[in-house]
Amino acid sequence: MKTGGLLVLVFALFVDQGATCSVSSPQCYKNTTQPDDDFLCEWEDRDPSPDADYTIFMKTSSLNESSYANQFKAGKKLSVLIPVEYLITTRLLDIWVLRQVFDVTCSSSNISVLLDNSVKYSPPNVQKKTRSAEKLILRWPRVNDHKGAVHEIRWKTFNGAWQNETFETEDGKSNDDWISYTMQLQEHTRYQVQIRRRAKQSLLWSDWSHISNIPTEIQQPVVHWIEETHRGKREIRLKWNKPPTEASFGGVSYNLTLILPCKKTKRQRIRSNTYKFVATDSEARVTVVAINDVSSSPSQEIIIPPVEHLKYCHNDSYSLPKHYCWEWYQLADGENRTSHVSISRKNTLEDIKQGMQEYVRYYYFLHDRRKQQQHTIRACPVYSTEGAPSSPPKNVTVVNISYDSAVLWWSPIPVQDQHGFLMYYLLWVSKEGQTLTGHHQVPANETNFLLRNLEPASSYTLNIAGKTKIGVGPNSTRTFFTLSNSSSDIETTPGDDLLPGMRMEIMIILIVCGVVLVCSVALSFAIRRLRTKLFPIIPSPVISTAAMPQMDKQVKLGCSLKQKHVTSLQEDSPDKDEENEDEEDCVDDDEDGSHLKAFISNDKPSFFPNPNYKGQLLRFPETLEITDRAQTESCEVNTPSYTNALFI
Ligand SMILES: *[C@@H]1O[C@H](CO)[C@@H](O)[C@H](O)[C@H]1NC(C)=O
Ligand SMILES: *[C@@H]1O[C@H](CO)[C@@H](O)[C@H](O)[C@H]1NC(C)=O
Ligand SMILES: *[C@@H]1O[C@H](CO)[C@@H](O)[C@H](O)[C@H]1NC(C)=O
Ligand SMILES: *[C@@H]1O[C@H](CO)[C@@H](O)[C@H](O)[C@H]1NC(C)=O
Ligand SMILES: *[C@@H]1O[C@H](CO)[C@@H](O)[C@H](O)[C@H]1NC(C)=O
Ligand SMILES: *[C@@H]1O[C@H](CO)[C@@H](O)[C@H](O)[C@H]1NC(C)=O
Ligand SMILES: *[C@@H]1O[C@H](CO)[C@@H](O)[C@H](O)[C@H]1NC(C)=O
Ligand SMILES: *[C@@H]1O[C@H](CO)[C@@H](O)[C@H](O)[C@H]1NC(C)=O
Ligand SMILES: *[C@@H]1O[C@H](CO)[C@@H](O)[C@H](O)[C@H]1NC(C)=O
Ligand SMILES: *[C@@H]1O[C@H](CO)[C@@H](O)[C@H](O)[C@H]1NC(C)=O
Ligand SMILES: *[C@@H]1O[C@H](CO)[C@@H](O)[C@H](O)[C@H]1NC(C)=O
Ligand SMILES: *[C@@H]1O[C@H](CO)[C@@H](O)[C@H](O)[C@H]1NC(C)=O
């Protein structure tokens, strides 16, 4: 019994092994909910064998007259596509797969499905991802049946765990082919996202979509550039910062747009953060847009300015190469180009000038267009027609004025008003009362001029104007006074320079007067002395009354005159009228002296006979000499003469 039981067990095991076939139960589905879709049945074989043949069986569970049963050979494949017309899709079917290797067969377990509901969508293909800060918008195409579906979306931070969410979409209209979904994320964190979907009536989920990398929003790159100039061309190297890993997650690329004059705009997508190109001497523009999986930065425009504009070209001759290109624009202010740039691949400079406005400065480039030799042949400012400047130099000021020099400053004539190439400034200098005294040409690049050899305390008038080859523009006029040469006399008036000379004359006159006066006083004193010596014998009041007032007046005048003179010397501020008075006084004294002399000469013969008084007479002049000039003393000197006269 025991062995029998064991045999039963072994048999049972054997039967069991036969029943547990290596083929999984099949899955049959169509791609969409549309009724005419064909079905795909697929299964797996845990023990694949090159000799295995597969057949799939289908039949309705209950057997009656409308029952259905069918089988389809799959050959050696693990799937078979079955056209819908061979199937019953509206009734529950049992489906299994028979595996046959030579004459060994086994069957998978049964599944029981209603094929109409057996829909397995393709995984969503997330094509558009847009992120701005925290907000992420995902977009993918609908299934072409336009039916609403159930979606499951899952996301995680780079090293985190999945989080999920499901949502349903409504049936779509035929023109709305995209589904979009908006989610909130943390701003500075990168994520990974997957989505799957299923038809509402189906239990079959689609596969998960590919993992979508969600970097952070990308920022505008900071671009630096350097140039290396060669003859007529420049090698430009651009470089910009790489974005942080959060933003470059999933890859970064850059859209470059290169705009060069006379050339087609070039667009390029690169992955490197450097870029090199060759530009001519005129302006080049490059725009850089950084792009990552979810965003693109605002475009960054880099303007490579033209090589510094020349102020003047001395030589107008040129020769045209086989392929060339003119580029020109207004340079109205002499520095900045207008936005409108003209291009011509034919014509001559003269033809081009035809289209230019008169008196307006333009700037042109002549580029060689030959492939290997692209460079700028010429670059020059140009006028179609030149004129004379329309405005004078502005803000003309005279500074640092001294007695013989001054500095003239001005603001240059704006290029708009120059109406041509300014050759130089014409500067006229004229002194008041005279016609032109100076005429200068100042180079056009200067804005100041040192005026030398001016005369002190004079009024000068300056006229300054710009000159082009056509003519001279209007004048700016300034008048100024040079300083007086005397450092103490800051404020000067014309005619003041006459004073020093005049003062000198007056001084000489006064000194002469003084000397004459002293002499005459001394002389009159001596005479009086003599007289007193001569007349004591016959003292007569007639003589004293007649002579004394004369003497008295003279002495008083001498005192007052001397006093005035001293005062004038000390104060050094003589009043003209006062001086004249002094002069008059002095003249009066002279007259008085001559009266006195006349008087003395008349008396002379009667004086000398008495020699006794000679010694006394000689003594007094000594005293007089010692006390000379001092007003009080000279007055005292006179007193004894009077007393003597009285006493003797
Ligand atoms: C479903 O779609 C895929 C790809 O679009 C296709 O290869 C496959 O044959 C389709 N299946 C059915 C049953 O139409
Ligand atoms: C599956 O079910 C059908 C009846 O619906 C039956 O005839 C068939 O033998 C079954 N197949 C297996 C492998 O169980
Ligand atoms: C046959 O069986 C199915 C269920 O399996 C049933 O729906 C159908 O009505 C039956 N037909 C007849 C004629 O009995
Ligand atoms: C999230 O996933 C878990 C496990 O896969 C599942 O049980 C749960 O239902 C899902 N939640 C949502 C909202 O889909
Ligand atoms: C980048 O350039 C490609 C073509 O090179 C273009 O299709 C794409 O739209 C551009 N992207 C951006 C953001 O400009
Ligand atoms: C102008 O340039 C040409 C060559 O470009 C030269 O032959 C000519 O001598 C130059 N003239 C002057 C005035 O420099
Ligand atoms: C040229 O443009 C720059 C920048 O706009 C400005 O600072 C400068 O003053 C302009 N030059 C003239 C002459 O207007
Ligand atoms: C004026 O003179 C001073 C000293 O001589 C000098 O430093 C200054 O630069 C001058 N100013 C001008 C505008 O020439
Ligand atoms: C004149 O000078 C003033 C002040 O110094 C300045 O603001 C103005 O721009 C100047 N004018 C010109 C035409 O340079
Ligand atoms: C003007 O140009 C001359 C040469 O052309 C130069 O020597 C001088 O320094 C310039 N002056 C100014 C103020 O730039
Ligand atoms: C400018 O002034 C100078 C000198 O006074 C004179 O010769 C010239 O004619 C004036 N120019 C104008 C345009 O007034
Ligand atoms: C002005 O004064 C200076 C010294 O201060 C002197 O050298 C010069 O000769 C004087 N000029 C005149 C015209 O007096």
The 3D shape can be described as elongated
Estimate the strand proportion.
25-35%
**What is the straight-line distance between the termini?**
207 Å
Biggest β-sheet, characterized?
Answer: 5 strands, antiparallel
What percent of residues adopt helix (DSSP H or I)? 10-25%
Structural class: alpha+beta
Uncertain runs: 1-18, 488-501, 538-648
Ligands, ions, cofactors:
2-acetamido-2-deoxy-beta-D-glucopyranose
Task: Please state the average pLDDT score.
Answer: 79
Radius of gyration: 63 Å
Question: How do you describe this structure in short?
Answer:
This is Fibronectin type-III domain-containing protein. The protein has 648 residues and is of the alpha+beta class.
Written description of the protein model:
This protein has 648 residues and is an alpha+beta fold. 25% of the residues lie in helices and 33% in strands. The strands form nine sheets. Strands 3, 4, 6, 7 and 8 form a five-stranded antiparallel sheet that branches. It is elongated. The termini are far apart. The site of one 2-acetamido-2-deoxy-beta-D-glucopyranose has 2 residues, from loops. One 2-acetamido-2-deoxy-beta-D-glucopyranose binds at residues 59, 61, 94, 96, 107, 110.
Write the layout of secondary structure elements.
Layout: H1 2-19, E1 27-29, E2 39-42, E3 52-60, E4 69-75, E5 79-82, E6 92-101, E7 104-107, E8 111-114, E9 128-132, E10 135-141, E11 149-157, E12 163-168, E13 178-184, E14 191-199, E15 212-214, E16 223-230, E17 233-240, H2 245-248, E18 253-259, E19 266-270, E20 274-280, E21 284-291, E22 300-304, E23 324-330, E24 342-344, H3 349-354, E25 362-368, E26 375-382, E27 394-399, E28 406-411, H4 415-418, E29 424-431, E30 436-443, E31 448-451, E32 459-467, E33 476-481, H5 499-534, H6 541-571, H7 576-607, H8 614-626, H9 631-647
Antiparallel strand pairs: 1-2, 2-5, 3-4, 3-6, 6-7, 6-8, 9-10, 10-13, 11-12, 11-14, 14-15, 16-17, 17-20, 18-19, 18-21, 21-22, 23-24, 23-25, 25-26, 27-28, 28-31, 29-30, 29-32, 32-33
The protein binds 2-acetamido-2-deoxy-beta-D-glucopyranose (12 copies).
The site of one 2-acetamido-2-deoxy-beta-D-glucopyranose has 3 residues, from strand 27.
